[in-house]
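Hey, I was hoping to borrow your eyes for a little while. There's a protein on my desk that I can't quite get my head around. The fold is given in discrete form, as structure tokens running alongside the sequence. I'd be grateful if you could look everything over and explain what you see. Here's the protein in full, and shout if anything looks odd to you:
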Amino acid sequence: MLRNYAIGIDIGTTSTKVVLFDENGAAVAHHSKNYPLLSEEPGAAEQKPDEIYEAVNESLRETVRKSGDLAERIGFISFSTAMHSLIAVDSEGKPLTNSITWADIRSEPYVAAYKSDYGETAVELYKRTGVPLHPMTPLFKLQWLKNERPDIFQKAEKFVGIKDYILFRWFNEWQTDHASAAATGLWNMHTKTWDKEALKLAGISPGKLPILQSTTYYWGELSDVLAKKSGLASSVKVVIGATDGPLSNLGVGAISPGDVAVTIGTSGAIRTTSPTPILDTEGRTFCYPLTENHWVSGGPVNNGGIAFQWIHDTLQKEDDSAAYEKLSKDAEQIQPGAEGLIFLPYLTGERAPLWDAQAKASFIGLTLRHNHNHMVRAVLEGSILNLFSVYSLIKSQVGKREVKIFATGGFTNSPLWKQILADIFQTKVSIPEHTESSCLGAVLLGRYAIGETKILEEAPVETKHYQEIMPNPDYENVYKDLFQLYQSLSDTMQTQYKALHDFQNKHKKESGE
């Protein structure tokens, strides 16, 4: 029997999604399981590893059950995972901590101290690892753990990511892929080994970390126990896979030089692919491997759909999709540029391009002429202008090639927001019909890993059907001027964020909050 079906598993921040795809990349069965993000102290953002492990197993089992007779035709499983997680485990592989996620910012003081104390050395670290200096990275989480939880740090046998933990539970081996390793800030992209200086900074040896593997590494079969639990044949292969951002690029078709992927969910990201690593001179963008010949560069932003949710919650009390649709339609009545009202969308601090956890959001330019419709339009424009500012740091990689933008995420439910993206970038925006791009990317990488596809760019994908949004050329100059003003205001305000942060904390304490 031809085993031409495959499963993609995406271990996300708030849920695990499992999707079964046919040989053409069409989804035929799926299941997902949510889990909470825990914040038991200021700055914390953790999850229970065993809850995620059970979510993976349940979602896999249910997807196989829903696939019916097709289960016999499943040839492999391939993984995607959220980046930057850290779990300390003991000698038996049992967690000593929760999974400390990318959103955890408790290591912020250690990042600030390193930037202040090491200057050029900090830039050199970025040039070797491709990871901006930020509390999201396990490098600085380890520093925090060493100083704030020394008993756990000393007891830990290994420090691993959430996907490493899942695969250890499956195969009793500590393995990690190059993409996940790169996201730790501890991996040297040039030598493809753990970086000696980063390890020294973290206070650990290479033996405290999993064994490094390429993203195309795979196990040849399942254990009998796992096969029985999942309903799969023991001959099913398991591809270690990569991380969700690079795999999303692959899943939407943004894999060739000149292709740009934009994702806006609660947060957002913009990424492009190149055959070799390319870095920003000031360390403001990331660079992660997908394969040895595919490197994904770009930047994540904290404030995507969360900004729209905030303005909705502020202006509208009805909590349904119709309320969001009404806000969007009302904002359509306002001309591009919102009559000079600009929104800097740093409601939850910011990663790219500022890398400043203390950044604050602001409306600038308010007058008596502005109403709530202007504010909504400014919020939607501000989130896209922020992504465009990240794009301006990576567009040199595109060169003179024709730019192709592929967009995914919840923002695509808003016709206005999609149009703003096309108008600010002045480029056609293609929105794929399928939504689980990281799961599909994992499967496409899996086909490449096991030899079904010889060239990654030529992986067969039936779902390369897109809605296309064309830019309005009449708005090119408006948005060009608006972006210049946005950049200038963002640079000016950045000098005040620490003072604002200190003021808010001081008077919050004085008021007893």
User: Anything to note?
Assistant: The two ends are 65 Å apart (CA to CA). The chain has 17 helices and 23 strands. The chain has a mean pLDDT of 93. The longest strand covers residues 27-34.
